[in-house]
Amino acid sequence: MTESIKGVERFDSPGKGRGLRVTKPFKVGELLFSCPAYSYVLTVKERGCFCECCFTRKEGLAKCGKCKKAFYCNVKCQKADWAMHKLECSAMTAFGENWCPSEMSRLVARILAKKKTQKERCVSEKILLIGDVQSHVEDVDNEKREMTEVDVAGLHRFYSKHLEIPDHKDLLTLFSQVACNGFTIEDDELSHIGTAIYPDVALINHSCLPSVIVTYDGTSADIRAVKDMKPGDEVLISYIDLLYPTDDRNNRLRESYYFTCECQECKSRSMDKAKLKVRKQSDPFEPEVINNMVRYARKTIREFRAHKNIKTPSELLEMCEQSLDHMGAVFDDSNIYMLHMMYQAMGICLYMEDPEGAISYGEKIIKPYSKLYPPYSLNVSSMYLKLGRLYMGLEKHSAGISTLKKAMAIMEVAHGKNHLYLTELRKEIKKK
Asked: Which of 7, 43, 141, 152 is deepest in the core (most CB within 10 A)?
């Protein structure tokens, strides 16, 4: 399909394998191409809010008459989705509350079903076009291996009646390939909607200085320039959250994608000092004091993740507050580890329906975010959206409109001026 995209071509990227580059100029905000999903799945938590077929967000969706758990815009969407939904429809009814395959198992089931119904090349050739993923199956740590085995077991348990399931080795390879090449579909506030495979987007290599951004229009992925590009420039996206310093980013890349980034930012580490900013004082902190606090911060982040589904919201908020007090003795409020825990605390306040608490954290986050993230970052626009909507909810209309307009300025580049999210946002602003 890449061959039919005007202005973009495949090439061998030095040291990276296959990649994409542009053959004509592109300006900031210009669409390079759109890519339909090869296969996709709506996350279970969003059922009833989004159409299972087209991912349209609206009220009054119609239920599947049989399982009563899948929702659609209309009969057209329901019929279009039946080939995939039938994998789950009767199973959800039969298993009831015990129906609990992981999202990864659900996506792999759909890939296997599509492979069977369409006369195409081998699924691994069709959907997974970058990297030698198979060689990494043996490289995963025990925890990841155990999680994959649970996913495999779930596939057998919930889908064996409707699918021809490959042997264990091939299945492990497929799960690894999908884990490396899958994309999380997110809404305007970066809430998780679903997971998908995009063949052409999977060809794009990583850089911590990306030239394009991936956003979603329903189930399709849109690739837009976030910097001016000239013929021959490589199309580059970020696979990871770019807030963190060089060592953290590369640890994440090695853990999830099995490579180390060698972009200019990773070589120069030009942003690391700002990202790891410490408090100013007459007698500067010893390097060991700073290093110890960095180790504490990383340990706290790991512990918070481990406890996220175990502790109560109040207990989690207390964890955030305690870590912020401790780190604040050394770190500046704009230090990324402080920002990380503030962001978690803001999310907990939103969950606990405490808008004032959420705003107090959001206001501390937004200015450093706008400096530490690249231009046109969705992390920044989503923070402006959250804050703006919180202000509006508290009748602080002037602050709300001003903040929402800042979100809009980023989204017009990242999503395109005619995206549904922008249409809805303009309506929000006009209401007040």
From this structure: 152
- Verify that 19 and 97 share a domain, yes or no: no
204's tokens: 């794009």
Tokens 């976030």 correspond to 226
Q: Which runs of consecutive H residues, i.e. helices, occur in 160-286?
A: 168-181, 246-257, 264-268, 272-275
Q: Select from 429, 415, 427, 418 the least CA-distant residue to 190.
A: 415
Q: Where are the alpha helices (DSSP H) in 258-396?
A: 264-268, 272-275, 287-307, 313-327, 336-351, 355-372, 378-393
Same domain, yes or no, for 11 and 91? no
| Domain-embedded: residue 385 | yes
Domain that holds residue 149: 37-184
Q: DSSP code of 98?
A: G
pLDDT tens digit string along 25-41? 999 999 999 999 999 99
The total of structural domains in the chain comes to 3
Q: Report the predicted TM-score, pTM, of the whole model to 2 decimal places.
A: 0.91
Q: Which token pair is 155? A: 């596939």
Residue type, 333: D
